[in-house]
Amino acid sequence: EEQLNKRTTFHKKRILITAGPTKEKVDPVRYFTNHSSGKMGYAIARQAVQLGAEVTLISGPANLEVPAGVKHISVESAADMYDAVMEAYPNQDVVIKAAAVADYRPKHPFNEKLKKQGDNLVLELERTKDILQTLGEKKKHQFLVGFAAETTKPLEYGKQKLEKKRLDAIVINNITEAGAGFSGDTNKVTYVSKSGNTIDLPLQSKNDVAKAILQQVAKELKDDR
Ligand code: CTP
Ligand code: CA
């Protein structure tokens, strides 16, 4: 197996990574979010620095230490993340979208604390913009890697996302499998490239998953030339 050359693998490459959940405001004291811890994205950022990349990490609220050498941009909502990602995008060589972005947000967030009234409450939600879909549509030279969190038919749904969002690769996460998913320190993923190359990675630490993903990205970037 080809050994990765530390510090030179991604020499002069700019890698943008998104991580963590987003937070969508309901009123001044409440919000919608999800179970993403940010650990997977932060691990990718840490490993990418080790491999010599210039790393920008755009993350929603995560309780994690930012790895040394990483340019960190902290955001809250899906809309904030969209703006930060779009601004950074033109300069990037690789984008890895590990963030768990809200698909919907309250359509009319309240400026005053919502008082309880009645037995039921209906909140209207509206779709957020799909950041990764937009990156796919605007893609020039960038190598685009998405994540897919699935509870059923992971390979089928993951491959659909790869095509629909015009990605170069997708990391498919079956979040119902033991040791996989949002909050733990391990993960079990399948890497699928647009050429159809499918790699089932073993259950391992998120750091090792990050290494394996970056190794595969490096290989595909090299094969591209
Ligand atoms: N994503 C994004 N912007 C959104 C929603 C998702 O950039 N508004 C990105 C995620 O960061 C991830 C990929 O799209 O890299 C797939 O996210 P996922 O939630 O698995 O899929 P969706 O396309 O949102 O479809 P669904 O949730 O309906 O399965
Ligand atoms: Ca989604």
From TrEMBL:
Molecular function per GO: phosphopantothenate--cysteine ligase activity; phosphopantothenoylcysteine decarboxylase activity
DNA/pantothenate metabolism flavoprotein C-terminal domain segment(s): 11-219
Pathway in which the depicted protein is active: Cofactor biosynthesis; coenzyme A biosynthesis; CoA from (R)-pantothenate: step 2/5; Cofactor biosynthesis; coenzyme A biosynthesis; CoA from (R)-pantothenate: step 3/5
Stretches the record annotates as Phosphopantothenate--cysteine ligase: 15-225
Keywords, ordered alphabetically: Decarboxylase, Flavoprotein, FMN, Ligase, Lyase, Magnesium, Metal-binding, Multifunctional enzyme
E.C. numbers: 4.1.1.36, 6.3.2.5
Residues at which CTP binds: 103, 113, 147, 161, 165
Reactions mediated catalytically: (R)-4'-phosphopantothenate + L-cysteine + CTP = N-[(R)-4-phosphopantothenoyl]-L-cysteine + CMP + diphosphate + H(+); N-[(R)-4-phosphopantothenoyl]-L-cysteine + H(+) = (R)-4'-phosphopantetheine + CO2
Cofactor: FMN; Mg(2+)
Cofactor remark from the record: Binds 1 FMN per subunit.
Family, per entry: In the C-terminal section; belongs to the PPC synthetase family.
Function summary: Catalyzes two steps in the biosynthesis of coenzyme A. In the first step cysteine is conjugated to 4'-phosphopantothenate to form 4-phosphopantothenoylcysteine, in the latter compound is decarboxylated to form 4'-phosphopantotheine. Catalyzes two sequential steps in the biosynthesis of coenzyme A. In the first step cysteine is conjugated to 4'-phosphopantothenate to form 4-phosphopantothenoylcysteine. In the second step the latter compound is decarboxylated to form 4'-phosphopantotheine.
Protein name: Coenzyme A biosynthesis bifunctional protein CoaBC
Natural source organism: Pontibacillus salicampi
Residues of the full protein shown: 177 to 401 of 401
